[in-house]
TrEMBL record, chains A, B, C, D:
<feature type="propeptide">
    <location>
        <begin position="1"/>
        <end position="13"/>
    </location>
</feature>
<dbReference type="GO" id="GO:0006508">
    <property type="term" value="P:proteolysis"/>
</dbReference>
<keyword id="KW-0645">Protease</keyword>
<keyword id="KW-0378">Hydrolase</keyword>
<keyword id="KW-0865">Zymogen</keyword>
<comment type="similarity">
    <text>Belongs to the peptidase A25 family.</text>
</comment>
<comment type="subunit">
    <text>Homotetramer.</text>
</comment>
<dbReference type="Pfam" id="PF03418">
    <property type="entry name" value="Peptidase_A25"/>
</dbReference>
<dbReference type="InterPro" id="IPR005080">
    <property type="entry name" value="Peptidase_A25"/>
</dbReference>
<dbReference type="GO" id="GO:0004222">
    <property type="term" value="F:metalloendopeptidase activity"/>
</dbReference>
<dbReference type="GO" id="GO:0009847">
    <property type="term" value="P:spore germination"/>
</dbReference>
<protein>
    <recommendedName>
        <fullName>Germination protease</fullName>
        <ecNumber>3.4.24.78</ecNumber>
    </recommendedName>
</protein>
<comment type="function">
    <text>Initiates the rapid degradation of small, acid-soluble proteins during spore germination.</text>
</comment>
<dbReference type="InterPro" id="IPR023430">
    <property type="entry name" value="Pept_HybD-like_dom_sf"/>
</dbReference>
Length: 325, 325, 325, 325
């Protein structure tokens, strides 16, 4: 079944999925989007570059650079692989950050610490080696390129009454970091990517993204400094499962007698309407997540915190740093 | 579309759903199953009695009594309603328990405390007023009908290496309660029942039930004492969403030209195969749960613990008890 | 043994203790300090008013009003008493706040959520009914005097790298509350006050106070809005135990032959030096806390959150509010 | 000041402290006790062997072998040192265990997960790689010397109503391990040992030991299999601070005129009585612990779990094991 470009697709926070879905279907070069793949040892790095409004129109992602590291092996909790990916991620963070070794950085953990699939951000923040408060403690000769790192998990609107963006803006104005790194749980399009991919983007966080559907942007415009977003898909919207079932049905019926009748009845708009119907208001807020979500979130939080600690503290080793913590 | 009895249905732990699904379809009296409904103030009590193997065959639930209290209003976090349901639940627990006021009881919280949708049991246990160790502390004249209550959250196989059933058997042999009450997170068939229903059963816990799919039974046979199961649906298996989509498709197509062609192609077996196909091994372990799962589990844990504390400590008030805790 | 006024005293965050210690010893009216006691049902309310620098000099507390509610019975986890004190506290909060029913308020939970004796603030924040984000959700006719309440637990310097004061300043500038209420774990002078007293003050939080020894002030001057501090003693500094031993020794020796020799050797300065000696750097950061600190902190967090929810949401009942949360 | 042997000493769970305190005072060989010290890189290993009732009488510890690894550097959170000590501990565990590589072992985490200073045991258990349930999952050719390891945190009497010993006995009877390893938070005599020492003993857990003062024994006699105890001091009883003050006073007064008068008045019994007096019932349950207790407990839990995972899983690497977890 030919899915025409522009048709409804299940939502994904991953640019690599957004680009892939359309490309796979359209079998053509997407205007304003360049996609590059690179093979690592047990993982794939996909770089999606969205150029201007044309690119945004094509895949529904803000213009900017997106790097996705993907490794189905992460599902097996392979420690070696986790370590290799953490190192690869550290390199990508450094490259995207592009700051002097002593430029101050604020790490922000978005999401709800008490709801496991949404707890990625807060759990990363727990593991960050903060150093901003150590300047007066560390001897000058050791200070060298000690980067002032701060880390904050501002909680979610429902439990604080304050937009995450407001808290971050307030803190950024006070402590004036040179960049903000925002970690968030994401929604993927494919259940196979839950817990097996990390996305890095220089676009910041957009409204509507993330597991909670962020209400405000966290980006260079709203905060006045570059915002790097790091995310891991921890859920798939329930709608996606419905959509997949439909697609499978369509595929299975293809080539049989009844197919053309069916196809005539279900155009792109009907697909969308059908899914809207399956998703009653109650279902709309549902997400699909693995039973072992806690271990997955913990593993990925460790992987990302490890990468951040390595990328942010180049001048002083973590071991040296720990002495002053 | 006539779904013949015996066809595949999405799995549910709720007897009221199992009975309802089949009844709704078959529009006939189920053999060996009696269903009774009662209206409360803002909630419905459904009593399903499964008689012998005939009843078990009809709805796939072990013979015994199942009481479901259902209240869509729970979704709105209505405190009054929560209180009314907690009191109704306390009455049902007392009736099902049928023990003297001083007979010792063990409350068991099944599930994984660190994975929110599965944490219902451990969170209830945290809130139980235990009293088994107070016998020596409480003055004899106050002891009266003080029931020795113990409460245990034995963890899950994946993090302990021990079957929950083995831990419980070991403890039951040691402390010899007159009954075990096992609290567990359940899987429902309909997303509307997530967090809006409580099921009470005198059948204990069956293998395959619960969010994790219990591997062993916790029942009168395995433990040597009656086992009352209390559960709240916190998830729906991802398969159910796929199934719902198919059903909706079938309903929509009904009466149109293509319907008969389609129907010819999809018998009950094809439905099952199709869903199995959608559910790759990866998808098989996925569950659908609301984003606000943490608040929901906490509310329901408080409701159940409140009901248990009221039902188990009739002779001594909670306030009196707290003095010795 | 006559302890002259001005001598070293073990540190306390409680103004009632500070006034009492000196008064008890000096048996005279303290200059610039008025102390008033009031008896409740099972509890005592002590109002200390520190007038200007003279009062501050006398008891080492910033000028302002301090209200301490004290109830040894809280140790027994008496639910009725908890409820009565929560209501009394709500009245005191309202009186001290003195704001219109719809004036926005920010509740701040100071301290480290992961270190039990210091977790009071974050645990109170968890239980606050926030409403600031509900203005658009609640129907206008219900909104009435709905007070916009926000609640934040900004973490501690050691894990965020950011001074708590900086986070609060940033957020206050953004959301412009009319008052800030800061909840913090306190250090008492007497172990009997651990978990049995609540202090309310209109002076805000002073540097050096609290379990962690706050580094910066959180007060009207630093934040630009009134700051009400609410605290519960959860620890006693280890130094205090040493001091108590010394005092007891002195008392015991009094009237015996050796006493005068001893007394000649230990003037006020010697006492201080002796204690400094006992307290090696390692001991300096030690605190004394009960084994059952977790239950105590949880009980007191519930008591305070209950009082805050009642005092802040007068126009709309908690039950109504929950519908929109 | 000569403290005669047999005088009251502040309680300690550490055999090395118990032996040291008496030895230091008595300057003589203790009957029935052999003490051996060994220097590691940054740490000291002390082996205390208590021979029969004579040794027990001398230092108040059950007959058996005690190994204490002590490293003041742990206070500085030195990662290298943590790693070296973890490896040393792994070797000691293996030596004390003395079991074939595939003999089943049960790790038990004693203490209250919700009270930080007492949470060591439960936090170690969280980090243990359990494998007992993997026998059927791991391919036979990989199984090799896979040791079935189970791990349980049975909670505390106050929240379960069941003696920890009863739960463990029940589970041991069910799963029949060849040895039990019990991890517990300890009370030390010196604040300098909080978080800087690990004790390993082949005597199991004795009544009265640990932060909570265990009520029952967990040893070879009660469980029918050898019990190895692993502990870290996380608190000092508040009484100890009082005692230290007294000792310091006595030392300071020594050589001055008044000393002999003082000494005449305070014999061993008076010391005990004095301290009993300082410790009112309220104070009796108080413990001294550092403010940063959370990080300390987490660090030590990681160190111990790392040592246990290394010592217990020799045949299969942790990395291999993780694939099946």
């Amino acid at each position: 079944m030919a899915i025409s470009q522009g048709q409804w697709h299940p939502y994904t926070d991953l640019a690599s999925e957004a680009a892939g879905a359309v490309q796979g279907a359209a079998r053509q070069q997407l205007p304003g989007v360049t996609v590059q793949e690179e093979q690592g040892d047990g993982f794939t790095v996909t770089r999606v570059h969205v150029h201007g409004p044309e690119g945004e129109q094509a895949i529904g992602k803000a213009p900017g650079r997106y790097v996705t590291i993907e490794a189905p092996g992460l599902r097996e909790r392979n420690l070696d692989l986790q370590e290799r990916i953490s190192q690869a991620l550290a390199r990508e963070i450094e490259a995207l950050l592009g700051l002097p070794a002593d430029a101050p950085v604020l790490v922000v953990g978005l999401g709800n610490a008490r709801a496991t699939p949404d707890a990625l951000g807060p759990r990363v923040v727990e593991k960050i080696l903060v150093s901003r408060h150590l300047r007066d403690v560390v001897p000058a000769e050791l200070r060298g390129d000690l980067r002032p790192v701060a880390a904050l998990a501002p909680g979610v609107l429902g439990t604080t009454g304050v937009e995450t963006g407001e808290v971050i803006q307030g803190v950024v104005e006070r402590i004036r970091p040179r960049a903000v790194i925002a970690v968030d749980a994401l929604a993927a399009r494919s259940v196979e990517r839950i817990g097996t991919a990390v996305q890095l983007a220089d676009t910041g966080i957009r409204p509507g993204s993330g597991l909670q559907g962020r209400r405000v942007a966290l980006d260079a415009e709203s905060l006045g400094v570059p915002v790097i977003a790091i995310g891991v898909p921890t859920v798939v919207h329930a709608a996606t499962i419905a959509y997949d079932t439909f697609q499978l049905l369509a595929t299975r019926l293809k080539g049989r007698n009844a197919f053309f009748d069916l196809y005539a009845q279900f155009g792109p708009e009907e697909v969308r309407r059908l899914i809207d119907e399956v998703l009653t208001p109650a279902v709309g807020s549902l997400v699909v997540t693995p039973k072992g979500v806690d271990e997955m979130v913990e593993d990925m939080a460790r992987l990302i915190a490890g990468a951040l600690n390595a990328a942010l503290h180049k001048g002083v080793t973590a071991k040296e740093l720990m002495r002053y913590v």
